[in-house]
Amino acid sequence: MNTTPGQTVAAGSGAGTVAVVALGLLITAMLVWSVRFGIRVRGRESAPPRRRDQPTLPESGPVHEERQMREPNEVSRAGDESGRLTPHQLGNDPSRRSENQSRPRWERGGS
């Protein structure tokens, strides 16, 4: 007689039924343990910030963006002794504030 384990369980074998029930209990116990472990870990974490701990607007009102016209700094030329500039010779700021702060506009009535 050639039987498979599925046929043995389907036939109502006592060992197969016990194995299925034991596996179900083991999975249930693991799920209960993981939930309890998660609750303990969450209890050790700091509480979320309260409403009064959140950032608020300054008394002067909301801060708005600042617009300014910029113009590029001229790149200095290397001296005769070297053919190129190193990064520390170039400086930090690639642009500077322009004297004319009016925004450029398209002229009407073009050519």
Describe the structure.
This protein has 111 residues and is mainly alpha-helical. It is 37% helix and 5% strand. The protein contains three helices and two strands. Strands 1-2 form a two-stranded antiparallel sheet. The protein is elongated. The mean pLDDT is 81.
> Rg to the nearest angstrom?
38 Å
Question: What percent strand?
Answer: 5-15%
**Helix/strand structural class:** mainly alpha
Question: What is the ordering of alpha helices and beta strands?
Answer: HHEHE
Distance N to C terminus = 101 Å
Taking all residues together, what is the mean pLDDT?
A: 81
As residue ranges, the low-confidence spans are none
Q: In which range does the helix fraction lie? A: 25-40%
How many distinct helices? 3
**How do the strands line up in the largest sheet?**
1-2
Find the count of extended strands (DSSP E, 2+ residues): 2
Shape: elongated
Main beta-sheet strand count, sense and barrel state: 2 strands, antiparallel
